[in-house]
């Protein structure tokens, strides 16, 4: 699976994005989409997964979640806009 990964479009899509992502199977947007029209254009082009970011308004927040957790080709994926410090769990311990 080929993923087109982006974030922080802030309502603007570079005109070459569609050429660059032509061979992608899906587009994943990690927040700060900017407006619902931007999300709609990307979703019309390829299967689209997204989360909202801190600049996104209530319309985008009503459609997209703050975080997405799913499997893609048996790989666990977590998408969020501002993730902070990753935490790794090993046995009974958490490592930061």
Question: How would you describe this protein?
Answer:
By secondary structure, the protein is an alpha/beta fold. It is 21% helix and 30% strand. It has 3 helices and 7 strands. It has helices at residues 17-20, 36-45, 58-63; strands spanning 3-6, 26-29, 48-50, 67-72, 75-80, 88-90, 93-95. The protein has a 3-stranded parallel β-sheet, covered by helices on one side. A two-stranded antiparallel ribbon has the order 4-5. β4 and β5 (75-80) form a beta hairpin. It is globular. The termini are far apart. Mean pLDDT is 88; it is low at 89-96.
Output the keywords.
96 residues; alpha/beta; two-stranded antiparallel ribbon
Principal-axis shape: globular
Q: Characterize the largest beta sheet: strand count, sense, and whether it forms a barrel.
A: 3 strands, parallel
Estimated structural class: alpha/beta
- The H/E string reads EHEHEHEEEE
Please give the radius of gyration in angstroms.
Answer: 15 Å
N-to-C CA distance: 30 Å
> Beta-strand level of the residues, as a percent range?
25-35%
Helix amount: 10-25%
Roughly what is the average pLDDT, rounded to an integer? 88
Structure summary:
With 96 residues, the chain is of the alpha/beta class. The chain is built from 3 helices and 7 strands.
């Amino acid at each position: 699976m080929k993923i087109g990964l982006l974030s922080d479009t802030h309502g603007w899509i570079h005109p070459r994005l569609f050429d660059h992502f032509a061979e992608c199977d899906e587009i994943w947007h990690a927040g700060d989409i900017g407006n619902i029209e931007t999300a709609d254009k990307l979703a019309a082009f390829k299967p689209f997964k997204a989360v909202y970011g801190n600049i996104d308004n209530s319309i985008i927040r009503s459609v997209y979640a703050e975080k997405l957790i799913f499997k893609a080709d048996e790989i666990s994926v977590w998408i969020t806009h501002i993730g902070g410090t990753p935490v790794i769990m090993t046995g009974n311990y958490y490592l930061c």
